[in-house]
Write a structure and sequence with these properties.
CATH superfamily of the largest domain: Vaccinia Virus protein VP39
Structural class: alpha/beta
CATH architecture of the largest domain: 3-Layer(aba) Sandwich
Shape: elongated
Number of domains: 2
Mean pLDDT: 93
CATH class of the largest domain: Alpha Beta
Largest sheet: 7 strands, mixed
CATH topology of the largest domain: Rossmann fold
Length: about 260
Amino acid sequence: MKAKKALGQHFLIDESLSRQIAYSLQSLPTCKNVLEVGPGKGILTQFLIEQGFPFKVVELDKDMVSILIRSFPDLHDRIIHLDFLKLDLRRIYNGEPFLLIGNFPYNISTEIIFKMLDNKELIPEVVGMFQKEVAYRFIAPHGSKTYGITSVLTQAFYHGEKLFDVGPMSFNPPPKVESAVIRLTRKENPITCDPKLFKHIVKLGFSQRRKMLRNTLKGIVKNPVLFEDKVFTLRPEQLSVADFEALTYKIEESNESGS
């Protein structure tokens, strides 16, 4: 069965790496439900089965669904043949939390993380394979060249860490890029400011990342006196997640008070 470019398929063929990924979930003692996204032929699935906990898989490709059923007959009732991005995640385990894992299709990997953020109350941990450049963006520290919108929005709610890099020859067909596996663990103390305003400020700030924040945020600051704060002389990559949270409070309070 050949990989389909339209679905961003690159099948992992290294079983030792697959086992390592499957055993990288740390929250299993407290959260037993697991959802694998894009299982393909099941190289990761076999090691999830091996661990014996409740899990389901979601696979869009009907050919892969057929392969999974043939390879793992007992998995039949746990295969969700749908597009993950269109799923109501509350229905997967009847509102119970679950861990997310997968060799994520590269063409939707960022969207998968944004869906995770939209459903963060359900997902305490994610272990996933990404294009290396994309993976590093999620976990990049402030001040680095790769630090951006996805870094801030992800790190506002999750702690990220790189587990290991993966070369192209571990896949069939080999991708033209390097890959990396990362783990995202939901924070016990995430941001507490208005999440919509926070997201808006982050996106505006990075819309022209070479400019100071007083230029990119002038459209949402009602009182220009606020621009006397030195934070507005900085560029977005200079702000940590905590700095963006503090900035969100400042703008919100200033706009509400009109002073």
